[in-house]
Amino acid sequence: MCVTIRRATIDDAKQISELIVPLTKKYVCPTWEQDAHHVVLESMSAENVASYIANDYYYLIAEDEHQSVIGVACMRDFSHLYHLFVAEKHQGKGVSRLLWQRLKSVSLKQGNQGRFTVNAALNSEQVYAKFGFKRTQGVRKCRGMVDVPMELTVADKVI
């Protein structure tokens, strides 16, 4: 499989939303209270994603050989991993690792001193653990949303 990773533009917002909303409904929402679903899903609308891209959230997309978006990653403030999603048929093939490595590299070049955070969905904690993230506290529940706060400190900041 040939994967191309590039920085997302506002024109990619619709495709990004179309990828991440169904994955969130399937994998994240079942672990949350029903009343919280609309909050996260609305935050992933094409309009909101376009706004994030326009306001300094750094989005990367992974495309297959047909230029279809198969993965998305986003970093806020070059320190907080905000989104990391891969289309189901491409999961387990290293796409999330490629996206994460590129985001980490860009963030370090942009001045990150080697500290990254993520609020992991319950079923994605193991993915982040493979990248070196560690829990900073136990499972957290706030306003019906459930996550696991995690952190990664990169000792060797070689880019």
TrEMBL record:
Protein's organism: Vibrio panuliri
The N-acetyltransferase domain, residue ranges: 3-155
A family per Pfam: Acetyltransf_10
InterPro entries attached to this UniProt entry: Acyl_CoA_acyltransferase (IPR016181), GNAT_dom (IPR000182), N-acetyltrans/Recomb-assoc (IPR052564)
Name of this chain's protein: GNAT family N-acetyltransferase
Superkingdom classification of source: Bacteria
